[in-house]
Amino acid sequence: MAQNHPLASPSTNSLHHKLLSLPIADKLHFDPESISAASVDYGFFVQEIPAAVLRPSCLEDIMTLVAFRNNESSIPFTISARGRGHSVRGQAMARDGVVVDMTSLGNKGHETTVSYSQSLGHYADVGGHEIWFNVLEHTLKHGLAPVTLTDYQYATVGGTLSNAGIGGEAFRNGPQITNVHEMDVITGTGDFLTCSPHKNPDLFYSVLGGLGQFGIITRARIALRPAPKRAKWVRLLYSDFSAFTTDQERLISRHQRDQDEALDFVEGCLLMHRNMDTWVSFFPLSDRPRVMSLLTEHKLLYCIKAAKYYDEQTESTVEKDLEIILKDLNHVPEFKFEKDVAFIDFLNRIRVAELRLREQGLWNIPHPWLDLFVPKSRMADINTGIFKDIALKNNITTGCVLIYPMNKNKWDDRMSAVTPDEDIFYTVEFLHTSGFGDWQECELQNKEMLSFLKDNGIKFKRYLPNYRTEREWMEHFGPKWRTFQGSKAKFDPKLLLSPGQRIFNHS
Ligand code: FAD
Description:
alpha+beta; six-stranded antiparallel β-sheet
C-alpha cells in the first residue's frame, strides 16, 4: 500500500485518495523513494515535494491525469513533466502536485523512426521523453544525425526543446528548437494536438523554448543530416581577450560558416587554476607544464574549442581545410593542440566526464549554475567586470566556464526562447559545482555577477532562466510577454503545467 513521504503536506492526503480512484492508480507512486527522487534535480539545492509521481506507460495515462485535473478534481493541483531532471533550480518540480516521469515511457511503442520526404529531406520522429543519445544511436544506423546537438546528449528531447538546445554547432545550424518540423503536444486543457509552422502554429512557436508552460511534448519531428565519421578537435589558447573574441567571431562569420569547408563546432572557455580539472585532460601530458606556466603568468587564459567533422569523402582534404580556416588566427604562438577522434566520441565527451565524476561521488552534488546570453558589444565589460573582477578575485569558481558566440539570424523570433538584441551574442555559462555546505557562496557570486550586469546596463538574457516575480519574467520576455501570456491563457488556462518554472505560480 502507498506510503506517504514524511514531508508531504496534509492536503496531499486527500489528493492521494482521489488519484487512487483513477484507472491509472497503479502507475501513480507515493512512496518516499519515488517522491524524494522527484523532489531534487541536478542542481541539488532546491527541493519541492510533490504529492505523487506518475510513471506513464502510454500517452493515454498522461491524458487521463490532465483530464482528471481539468474536469473532475475538486482539489487544484499542478502537473510537471520531468525529463531527466537536469534542471538546476527546480524547474521540473511540482510542489503538492504530480510529477510525470517521462522516462518511464521508455521505448514502448514510441521508437524513433527515420523517414525521408522531398520537402523535409531526412527527418526522425522521436518521443519527447527520449534522450538525445538514443536518438543519435538510432539515426547513426541510417548514416544520419540530428542537425544540431547539444554538448551533452543525455537530456531529453522534450527538456531541451522547452529551453533551446544549444552547443558549439548552434552558430552554424541554429539551436535544436529551430530544427523541428512538427510536434505532438498534450496541452494543459487536455487536448492532444499536432502542431507545425502550418498546423496550430501558435502552439508550435509557443512550445519551442516555452519552458513547459503550454503542453507536454510527446513527439518531435526533427531534421537530420548526413553523419560524419570523425572529428578534428582543436584547442587554441589566448592570453588576450580581444584576440580571443575577434577570432571566435571570425570563425562563426557568414563567410566562414556557409562554406562546406567551414568549422562544424565553435566554443570557448575560461582557464583558471581553480577549474583546472575541467580542461587539463585535453592537453598531452608532455605539454601540460608549458600550459600551466602560461596560466601562472597570466592568471586567466581563454581557449577556443573547435571541431571540423569529416568522412571518407573529405578525409584527404580535412587537414588542408582546417589549416586554411585556422590560418592567421591570433592565439598564443605554439599553443595550438589537435586531436582526431570518432564523431560519437566527440559528442560523448561530457558523458566520459560524467562517468568519472559518478565514480568519485562528485555527480550528485550541488550545481549552482548561471547561464547567460550577452550581447557581443558588451563582452569586453564581461571580461573586466565578471571574469577578472569577480571570478578571478573571489577565487571560488569551479566547474567549466563556457564562452562562445552565436548568430542571432540562426534563431527564430516567433519562438518563445529569448536572446539579446544584437546580431551576435555570447553564451557565458558558469557551470559551478560545489559541496553541500558551500553552494550558497556560489549563489552569492552569481548575484554579484547579475548585479554587475544590471548596474552596467548590459542587456543580457538568462538561459535556463529562473525568476521569482512576474515583473522579472515580463522583463525577461520583453515584447514576447504578451504572446506568452496569451498562449498560456489559451493552452493552459488553469495554470497546471511546469509550476517549477514559477512564471505563473509565484508562491
Ligand atoms: P527537465 O530538467 O526534466 O525539465 C526541464 C523543463 O522542461 C521543466 O520545466 C519540465 O517540466 C519541462 N519538460 C520536460 N520534459 C518535457 C516535455 N516532454 N514536454 C514539455 N515540457 C517538458 N542545455 C543545452 O541547451 N545545451 C547543453 O549542452 C546542455 N548541457 C547540459 C549538461 C548537463 C550535465 C546538464 C545537467 C544540463 C545540460 N543542459 C544543456 C541543460 C538541459 O538542456 C536542461 O536542463 C533541460 O531542461 C533538459 O533537461 P531534462 O530533459 O532533464 O529536462
